[in-house]
Amino acid sequence: MLHNTLLAANVLLTVVVSATAFLATPLNTTDPDLASILCPEQTAEVTRDHKWITREAIRRNIRRFFLHNPPPTQPGFTVPTDASLSQLYHAYYGASASPARFINAVNSIAASNVRADSARQLRYDPGIQADGEAFGDLQSKLSSRYPQLLTSILVNEAYSAARSLLGLSLHSIQKFYAHSTWIEAGNTDILPDLGLPGSPPLDVAAPDDDVCTPCPNSQGQCVGNVLNGVGLSTGFYQYTDEDAKGFLIPKPSSGGKCSHGGVLDETADQPARGGINKDTASPCFSPHHHLHQQAAELAVLATDHYLDVVLEAVGSDKYRRLFDLYQGSALSILIDTTSSMSGEINAVRDQVAEIVASVPTELYILVPYNDPKVGPVTKTDNPDDFLNAVNSLKPHGGDDIPEMYWQGLQLALSNTPDYGNIFSFTDAGGKDGNIMESVISLAQERNIKVTVVYSGRVSKDDPNSARKKTGDSRLITNQADYKRLADSTGGLFIPSGKFEIDAITPILGDSVKSVDVDIAMLKDVKGSQQLELPIDDSVLDVTVHLAGYMNDAVMQDVTGTTYDLLDDAALTAAGVEVVTSSEALRVVRFPHPGFGSWVLDLDADTSFSVTISANSTLSWLGGFSILDPSPPHPHYRAVEGNPLTDTVYYLDVMLIGYLESNLLDVDSVEYTDNTGVLLRTIIYDGDIDDEFYIRSEPLPEQPFNVRLCGHVQSGNKFCRLLPVLITPVQASVEVLATSEELSARPSESTSGDFLIKNFGLESDFQVTVTDDMKYFTEVTPSTIHLTSNGSEVVTASFSVPSGSVPGTVSTIILTAQSAKQKQSVNSAVTQLVVLPETVDTEAPLCSLDTEPDCSGFNIIGICNQKNWTITATLQDSVSGLSNAYAVPEGLWSEVNGLTPSTKNEVTLSYGASCCTSQVEIIGVDTVGNVGKCRIDMGVLGGAIVDLEAESVGVDWVMLRWSLSPTTLELHKYSLLINEDMVSEFRCTESVCHRNVTDLKACSLQTFQLTPYFYMGESDRVGLAAYTDATTLDLEPGSPVNGKQINSTSTTARVTWEAANTLCLHQYQVCYRPYGFPGTEVCEATSATEYELRGIEPCAVYVVTVMSVSPSGLLSEPLKFYVNTDEADPEAPRNVVLEQATETTVTLAWDDPLHHVQCIDRYMITYGVIEPTHREVHVDFSHNVATVSELLPCTNYSFMVTAVSKTGKMGPGAHRTAETLETENPNPVDALVAEANATTSLQVSWMTDMVCIDHFVVCYYEHLVPEETCAAEDNTETSLLGLQPCTDYTVVVTAVTPYGVESNKTTTTASTLEINPGKPEKLTVTDQTAHTVEISFDPPSVGSQCITEYDIQGILLDSTLRDKQIGTAVPTEPSRESLFTDLMACSEYEIRVRSVTRGLLTSDWVSVVATTLEDTPSAPRNLKLLDATQTTLHVQWWEPMDNYLCVEEYVVSWIKKGEAKTQTFTSRNNKGPRSPVSDMTLPNLTPCSQYDVTVKAVTPSGQESDVASLSADTTGCPP
Per the omega criterion (within 30 degrees of 0), is the bond before 632 cis? Predict the structure, then answer.
């Protein structure tokens, strides 16, 4: 669409007017549109943006969280300090665990942070952006949001809403350090209480305090311009933006306040000149760029601290959920419990029992639904509670068939973690389809796959038939809608018979084991389909999901081995896991797949779907963004809802595990539809990182999936598919409401605004709102009319019931749907939070009954010889307690009296040894205030702190550690290496180093470091610390003694020996053909034996075996050769005749596709018509043979057969060929053609008549692709029956007795001209108010003589009769013409005549056309001619435009002060037209003023604008 393209262009052109505050996202600073404001050539350091700061702080925080909460099986868990987010996750949960949900949770927080620079109600707000000395507003917003954040976690566990609130708060906290004078005032640490309720007020500058002095220049670096000893301040920031009006705070004119500064700040020239922002490392943008790194580091530390505050308030379990820190997936089930579902309920019940017994699952969600009841939802991490909930399901009710499916799904989506799977079971449609669009949008927003197991009748009727029968297209949904749901979310639609459910339900258990990545996908396809599947080195297993009734399904791996996916026994025998096997659904898994290109061939008579997924260390997250240049912060703005059609976006690529997976490059992005058709390919040759942006082509109009492709280090291709179906639309919905507006206390009401924009056709839009807690009351207006590119704000209202629990979060979905265009629909998703009824900033009280005493036992080594106990009393009398716990866990703890929201005393008893010297007893109230009792007996002396491998070599590891202060004198350290060798040494430094050498390369080295202290005459052993490291690799030793064990015609088994196993991780086996072309195949194996599969018979292969180290180093190759057994040759291909003479035929052919190496020679048999036993033997290497001593002019049949070395013959390939004439005939010469009439030509030629039997004379005209030929014995002939004035080409060919033709001889000639006929069927084909289009046929006589047409148009009007308004004389013959700029409602005569090249003309033909109506302009010069006491005589002139379309005038008048209007219609006479009309208005009131209006009306009722005047009747008293 043009408007979207222009919008994108404007974005790129106006990027130079943008600003930044800690850039929200990374940008390409060398972009010409950004370079002038970011001056990369002057920037020496890296600029840190909000995304980086947020992710870096979370990375540090989660690393510390993992260290404090090690895996149960790894009490000495360590991880490098610089480990990435995905590396942290893999280190904690294992290399095969997918960190996708964890990374997405982090990204959600970062995206909410960035949204504060995108949303119009946030981006300009000084209280959000820390501008304009709005410290009070900043602290107020942060403090009021803090309890919303905590209660959304503590009460409702609404983690999506919590991430949104958290990201917004982090944005303001980070802004504080970039925009305020905190750093300039000499602070080197963070402000820990920023944004927390009850925090002390800031020491801020008074409104009349001077803070800044002028900088030398208004632009560029500025140092030392902040006064010492004044209160805290921020810069003032002004820019021109209509939407910012009412937000920005003007800079005071006192001359002593600071500006934000930089090239985009309009206050930078105002006193005090310059600025203080530390947003970037660019001197032209940030005057205090030299402090940018310090500001960014403080922002990271402050973010880290705020996360610790949240952790302390919610506890470690809920903190894990906030970041989706758990393995596998949640088990989320939506199930129809109506009477017909008993079989499905029993099958689900049995499968859940198996899952609970065998598969560790972090979270269980069950949502039953019926009609009209939905729920209750069961959400628990207790498997027994979940099993009890499933076992309690009882089928009942549902007599009217459609159920409340979509409300049930909405409830399931609200409780299922992002990037999860929901399995829904039903046998009926849904009767609540009015919320379908909103619920699908929510599923896509949350990236949740929805799989529908449908056990009802699968209809082949019109998918809308159910709606038609009910007469309500908005309520009833059916299987077609379930398919769309599954397609849109990346799930499956599984049609199932009632008796197949037991075979299908195993997918439930399989879904919770891991989070797979999608490689390829087809949805709702039929017939034969083929998928090429790139399996890269990061793939651990491959899973195929087939939904539908299949005829064939065959997988071929990289070696050419095929697997019949419909044969369970064969799959099991081949080591393939059959997860689920039924007619409707098959799930099979290939463990340890070979790397390379796989092929999947499928065939079915009915529609089916297939998804190929993999367990892999490499995945990605993606979304569409727009480069937003508008003030105040340039960044990539993420698209809310569905993207727009035909719009250029940037694809935000977030790579997960790319370092661990040895990713080499990303080279393309593909857009494919559901059937696999490639719609767009975007080539990318840029750098890769954790996150980068790829500029997209305009989006397709149809729905599509996004696939990212590239290569890993080995060169193998990888591809990853985003499962969510992207549906471009032509409307957008934006949330204008803030979190403060979308929050309310019980018994209160609130409302929020949403902006709807239309980029499609002008239309009415229906606006619907749904929320899962049913707080929604109305939306106004509910129907809006939008022109193309039009927009309107709607308001949604909500009422929170009196019994609502504070902290409850209701997910709101607002959807706008065009009445005209299906693709003009979009949704926005946000949340409403229920606030506490009272503002509570008081922390719970905590007191201890005693203080523990560990005197004499506070030293490592003896601390475990004494235990201590305490009892703490906690109470919160305002909001009540929600949680009480102790950190760290001691030997035991017990909480008594804790019930939800209790205001009574709660006791916590705690016991630990003296090795636990620092403890916090924590109480958290229902709004998140934290109260503590702290027990601090000092740091245990003599503890080894932060033992880690600082650096690693091939045979050495450098250890680093420090020792906590102790009163004991250190004697020595004892280092146990690999539980074998002991090294003792001393170190008295504060930080110690020890280089451990003579280690084995590429091996895991374990270290146990124990301190020893002097204690009298003997040593006291301290507490040991542990760490490990893997030494670097050496090139592994090359394998030896490679040999072949056995072979068949298509396989060969080889073996070898390992000469040196040092640094040997596995082997890479490659094989390729020797002596003929073929692809090299490489696979990895840990065995010393390997079978080559799918190879050619009778062939020699070169086998290369290399040892591979753990890091991928390769040894020198071991090369040897293998042979395969013989097989019968196949038939040659493509036998062709290369040459024929009078006595010889030369044939050529291609080798067979298979068994080529088995061929020793070829044999040709031939004969006249049928093959005889006459043979010719041909050397294999040539594939060309000449058969000689043949008869001339004879048709032969040849058969070419391959023969093996042992004489085996394959099938033959046939070919016929004919020998040539003894002489080639010579072409004719002196060819002449002359016109002697209008319809004939005389042709003659000469020839030597050698070997000529006759002549073939052909002729054709240039414009007609048809040739007429005749045989002629003589050398002259007459061509009769030709068309006049036509150019002809004459061709004469000599022919031998056997039909061999000579080369052709050609000449041209023209027949004489005749007068042309008149054009025929002159017709008006189209007419508008101002145009007439005509068409006509050429004359039936002499049309070929015509070279052009004269075309004229004449206006027929009583006053303008015979006025010629246009003449068209095309230079080429034309059969249509368009007259423009005509008068509406007018008659025109259009006439046409034919013209030849000799200017002979035909008579005229004509047609009369009347132009259509157009709306006239307003009547002109309305004036009062006369007034009496009861009448007004008015006059007006006809409209300027389209006056001929006026049929009547409508005259209306209304007396001043009265609501009643009188109207009279004045007919426009059709007689002689006069431009002036008048009318007398009767029955008026004397001495009164009237408003008179006149408008013109056409015959169809179109009305002009009105002309108006005010006039008074007479008769007023003197």
Answer: yes
